[in-house]
Write the structure tokens for this entry.
Amino acid sequence: AQKITQTQPGMFVQEKEAVTLDCTYDTSDQSYGLFWYKQPSSGEMIFLIYQGSYDEQNATEGRYSLNFQKARKSANLVISASQLGDSAMYFCAVSGNTGKLIFGQGTTLQVKP
Amino acid sequence: KAGVTQTPRYLIKTRGQQVTLSCSPISGHRSVSWYQQTPGQGLQFLFEYFSETQRNKGNFPGRFSGRQFSNSRSEMNVSTLELGDSALYLCASSPPRGTYTEAFFGQGTRLTVV
């Protein structure tokens, strides 16, 4: 069984500052993938970043980086230089042997001007 | 390159009716998955199709069904609608490489059952 826990229902960040969104996971699969998605109010899920369980380097995609701590089963998303357009719901997800995504409950991020 | 297209975007149905939602994946993607999103239950996996075969299924009643066509387009059907079926239904397609590939989502179909 797989489970994702996102403990921050809502977060505020000042424009141009960095913010960390927390994610812990639980999986019995030896090999798995971790994902972060952004969901604006329009509803579309936008893929942000991916980390494989055997990747030694933390994944980065532009202003997004994933702080992967395998022993702690943690996969936090760091957004640098926040922009107003970053205001959205953010979901952490894990995919194991079956390929299906298991999502956390999400964190609502609001960027203040 | 066109993204994942879901139609219709919005739908209002009455209890007891049935509904069919459509999803056209990104060109070249053969895997299509469906998810239900509600405020109470969050995002839940419904099923996945790959090359016209259901490969995975979530924990939903038999009223929820799907299929995939030879061109990878997928449809999802919900019969005997209940008020609790009101949700955002998201379709995702994945490229044909490995297991842990990112899924690209459409904008969703927002279904309201009255």
Observations:
- Chain B touches chain A through 25 residues (CB under 8 Å).
- DSSP finds no helices and eleven strands in chain B.
- Chain B has a mean pLDDT of 93.
